[in-house]
Amino acid sequence: MDRIQKIISANGVASRREAERMITAGRVTVNGAVAKLGDSADAETDEIRVDGQAVTRSNERVYIVLNKPRGVLTTMKDDRGRRTVADLTRDVPGRVYPVGRLDYESDGLLIMTNDGEFANRVMHPSHEVPKTYAVAVRGELSAAVEVLRESMTLDDGASVHAISVEQTGEGALKITIREGRNRQIRRMCEQCGLEVRRLSRVAEGTVTMGRLKPGEWRYLTKAEIRQLTIDN
Predict the structure, then answer these.
(1) Which domains are assigned to the chain?
(2) 115 is annotated as an active-site residue
(3) What contacts 232, CB < 8 A, 6 or more positions away?
(4) Structure pTM?
(5) Does the structure show a pLDDT above 70 at 46?
């Protein structure tokens, strides 16, 4: 017997965190009964369904990187009919889901997979894969850059520290972080008096998008997969 969110994740339907949200929202059933968070099931004998669709075993593991455009949700389904990353990955063999988040107004590199253990390892706080962003801002940079290079306390009390902050041009920064808190780069910049005009993720670990155009995807190489799952 395993927790239901673990079974859903292991079979490539969603990350464990997203599976927990699905259970809480009443979207998961086990043998016809609505599941509750904390319930367990037997993957071999119990019938588990998400939104009415049976959870089946996925043997082929798929790992891709997508160049997510702005105005696309990092989710597989939206009740309001907005465009999601699922719409951009319909031609991927097997159902893949996002590893981590990239907010609606941001664009750039997004890793997706159907390998639950891989996703959990990459997203686990103890692993903290470095993520690099190109940030276009409006405001006084000289003083802000020095503040961004120091430890900061965000408005919710969270302590964060950028790995590196580099001014790459007029109104342009390259920032690398590990923590990956909700809207972290935007919040850090706003706290320094900077207005973020555009935010693009350009690297995760050593993985980059290469020549991918917005909306395009490619497979991760074996070397990239290994790099993402070693201790950083």
Answers:
(1) 2-54 (3.10.290.10), 63-126+207-229 (3.30.70.580), 131-204 (3.30.2350.10)
(2) no
(3) 127, 128, 129, 130, 178, 205
(4) 0.76
(5) yes
